[in-house]
Design goal:
This protein is mainly beta. The chain has one helix at 2-15, and strands at 28-33, 39-45, 67-71, 76-83, 88-95, 101-105, 108-112. The chain has a single domain (25-112), classed as Immunoglobulin-like. It is 12% helix and 39% strand. The protein starts with a helix and ends with a strand. The relative contact order is 0.24. This is Lipoprotein. It comes from Roseococcus pinisoli.
């Protein structure tokens, strides 16, 4: 009898969405450049360094102090930012649904809400 009572809970757990992908997440990220150097390229990939895909800023750059919305696959992603001077920074495990704001700092990337 108890097993029948627990069955709906077990079934609900099996079909529950993964963490960070709850209702309404479209994968939109706001990229903010708080560094003194312009950003030339942005790559966001669920596959990470194995397949960065296309440059999300092309054509164009993101100047210091500017912000721009980009879209990625909802869930966990890796991010690579390349500055106009050729220096690059990366972040693995960015959950774009839980932390949709990505700030480019002088020494790295910071994800927030």
């Amino acid at each position: 009898m108890r097993a029948l009572l627990l069955l709906p809970l077990l079934l609900a757990a099996c079909v529950a969405p993964p963490p960070g992908s709850l209702g309404g997440c479209d994968g939109r990220i706001q990229l903010r450049n708080a560094s003194p150097v312009a950003v030339e390229q942005l790559y966001v990939s669920a596959a990470g360094p194995a397949d960065w895909g296309r440059d999300q800023l092309s054509p164009g750059t993101l100047s210091s102090g500017a912000a721009r919305d980009v879209v990625a696959r909802p869930g966990l992603n890796a991010v690579r930012v390349v500055f106009v001077n050729g220096r690059a920074v990366e972040m693995a495990g960015l959950d774009v649904c839980a932390t949709p704001v990505l700030t480019v700092q002088p020494n790295g990337l910071q994800a927030s809400r």
